[in-house]
Amino acid sequence: MAIEYIYSAEGITANQLHGFFVGWTNPPSPETHLELLKNSDEVVLAVDTESGNVIGFITAITDNVLAAYIPLLEVLPDYQNQQIGKTLVEKMLARLRDFYMVDLLCDADLQLFYEKFDIRRGTGMFFRNYDRQAGRLKEG
Ligand SMILES: CC(C)(COP(=O)(O)OP(=O)(O)OC[C@H]1O[C@@H](n2cnc3c(N)ncnc32)[C@H](O)[C@@H]1OP(=O)(O)O)[C@@H](O)C(=O)NCCC(=O)NCCS
What is the pTM of this model? Predict the structure, then answer.
């Protein structure tokens, strides 16, 4: 299996984005997934070169000065435990190395994973609007 890592969603179609958001009650559609990838300041996509499908992704949004936030990271279940998630994080952190602060939130069982990258445990706060888990309502 050959995996290619790319830094843009340009040229990617929604058909290449199936199977993500595992366990989400009301997941974004592949079309909405594509939109959020295109709207992110930085993305790294892992593409299976045989199928052409995206099998892992990580996103970051930034203020382009001090701060970057990593909202999403996922590797499809069939591709997990093959160092793909680690590679995505490493490649994203390399893209963000100029920023003062790079923040993310994760469940406690993922803290050991992120600590491999010198990301430290902290205290966070968050709000979730579960009615909008599939994405914002479009205006007009
Ligand atoms: C978390 C996730 C991205 C990891 O991707 P992956 O490709 O399976 O992980 P890797 O194979 O790159 O693992 C790299 C290392 O982290 C370890 N690791 C992986 N998942 C871990 C976890 N949940 N807790 C602790 N360590 C973990 C691996 O054992 C491996 O260790 P090694 O380098 O000593 O061999 C993947 O499990 C996933 O998509 N989960 C569902 C979505 C999710 O939880 N995303 C994160 C939201 S904050």
Answer: 0.97
Q: Which two tokens stand for residue 73?
A: 């990271």
One pLDDT digit (tens) per residue for the chain, 140 residues? 899 999 999 999 999 999 999 999 999 999 999 999 999 999 999 999 999 999 999 999 999 999 999 999 999 999 999 999 999 999 999 999 999 999 999 999 999 999 999 999 999 999 999 999 999 988 76
Is residue 56 within 8 A of residue 84, CB to CB? The reply is yes
Confirm or reject: Cβ of 103 under 6 Å from ligand 1: no
Residue 6 Cβ inside 6 Å of ligand 1? The answer reads no
One-letter amino acid at 90 equals E
Q: With a 6 A CB cut-off, is 111 part of the ligand 1 pocket?
A: no
Whether ligand 1 lies within 6 angstroms of the CB of 76 is answered as no
Distance of CA 5 to the CA centre of its chain: 13
